[in-house]
Specification:
Shape: globular
Radius of gyration: 17 Å
Bound molecules: nicotinamide-adenine-dinucleotide
Largest sheet: 7 strands, parallel
Strand order of the largest sheet: 3-2-1-4-5-6-7
């Protein structure tokens, strides 16, 4: 992995949920593009494995254990990134929790609270913490979901939390703009990761050779990583306050109740 060159040469990047799936794929690619990466996860071992892989390839990374639902952990992860890498240029707030198969009306309210605490409150806390460190010209990317733009029949708490994430990103865009920081949400549809019970398989090809995802099918984590890198990079200088879909067309057309039956 080259350090002196790449889209993110000399940049310090923090990735939450970096131990698995989309966060892992993105951390690997940020490092490949020259960034020094702070890999944050509530599962320290997973983050350490990713950091070790980056270091073994000649890149710069370290693992940081943090629960994004906790305010003090968010402050600590940012402080550690600044301490270890001297600054923070990019924050990819990506950690999230699926909370699948919740019975919305009869189930335990604690399930709803947990989804909100990690996905929505965690995002809010992360934004507050990174705001103190990001310089003029910095960038924030937040992982929302296609479920942040339309409802999810079988998982309303998740969809509500991700709608909230999109609302936060859009609402805070002028505030961050006043500090010279761009903020965007990315909205994946289904992605082949442990969150949806799938094994994340590295495709092992250069970004230019990533296969096209068939209509309505799940993307690979590497597809979403490319979008995260783009949104965080100077190439996306005109993109701000957006909620960018990457769902292989899953939400492109209305499907009526009758047609589904
Ligand atoms: N996989 C999908 O189909 C899909 C679709 C749309 C959006 N997303 C979103 O993408 C993001 C990444 O998910 P993924 O699919 O890569 O899942 P994943 O399960 O592979 O990775 C999520 C990572 O987040 C970490 N994490 C969970 N709770 C945390 C907490 N409280 N503090 C710190 N880290 C925590 C987990 O330990 C894990 O390493 C999430 O925000 C998710 O909601 C996923």
């Amino acid at each position: 992995m080259a350090q002196a060159q790449g889209w993110f040469a000399g940049k310090s990047v923090l990735v939450t949920g970096g131990g698995s799936g989309i966060g892992r794929a993105s951390a690997l690619r940020f490092a490949e593009e020259g960034a020094s990466v702070c890999i944050v996860d509530v599962q320290l071992e997973a983050a350490e494995t990713v950091a070790a892989a980056i270091m073994a390839s000649g890149g710069q990374a370290f693992a940081c254990m943090a629960d994004v639902a906790k305010e003090a952990d968010n402050d600590r992860m940012v402080a550690e990134a600044v301490h270890r890498h001297g600054k923070l240029d990019v924050a990819f707030l990506n950690a999230g929790y699926g909370g699948w198969a919740m019975d919305a009306l009869e189930g335990d309210v604690a399930d709803f609270d947990r989804v909100m605490a990690i996905n929505l409150r965690g995002c809010y806390l992360g934004l507050r913490s990174v705001a103190r460190a990001l310089p003029y010209g910095g960038a924030i990317v937040v992982t929302a979901s296609a479920g942040g733009l339309m409802g999810v029949e079988f998982n309303p708490a998740y969809a509500a939390s991700k709608h909230g994430v999109v609302g936060l990103v859009r609402s805070l865009t002028p505030t961050f703009a006043a500090r010279g920081v761009r903020i965007n949400a990315l909205c994946p549809g289904g992605v082949q990761t442990p969150m949806v019970g799938a094994l994340t398989k590295d495709l092992g090809v250069a970004p230019d050779a990533l296969p096209q995802v068939a209509y309505g099918e799940r993307a690979n984590a590497e597809h979403i990583a490319e979008l995260a890198l783009f949104l965080a990079s100077a190439r996306a200088g005109a993109v701000n306050g957006s909620a960018m879909l990457a769902d292989a067309g899953q939400t492109s057309v209305l499907v009526s109740q009758a047609r589904r039956a």
